Amino acid sequence: MIPYLEEIARQQLGSDSDEFLQIIAMAQSFPGAMGINAAAIIGYRMGGWMGAATGVLGVTIPGVICASGLFILLVLAAESSWLDIATTALKAAVVGIILGMAINLGNRSWKGYRNLLVGLAAMLLFYKFQLSPVIILVGAGVVGYVFLSLPEAG
Predict the structure, then answer these.
(1) Is residue 5 a contact partner of residue 24, using CB atoms and an 8 Å limit?
(2) Residue 72 and residue 75: Cα distance in Å, rounded?
(3) Burial of 3 (0-12, 13-18, 19+ CB in 10 A)
(4) Average pLDDT over every residue of 13-24
């Protein structure tokens, strides 16, 4: 994400490396996704530190208000049967969306059978041996660097 933001900052905002590092330091100090970081960067360029804070607040406050309103509605409707039916349908939809994203990601990242073996090994270590995801990710990175950097035969 940082190289992408640096490219935008150089092209759109005309910042140099030192200024970009200051912008990134400010943007990364706020929690959240790219939208919040982008708001911090744009706000910083337009109004310094106060502009960055204002940009972040402008992006986050509407979401907080909407989430709070939704929470109040859910608390009021918690006893109704239609909410149980709706959440059951939403669970099924979320599973479908996640499965679709996993298939899409798998198609885009397919580079041969070696990747499949690393993925299956990670899945086996997680589900069968209850190994920590952090250990699996670090191990997959090391194995991937060694195993996948070799040229594939055939």
Answers:
(1) yes
(2) 5
(3) exposed
(4) 74
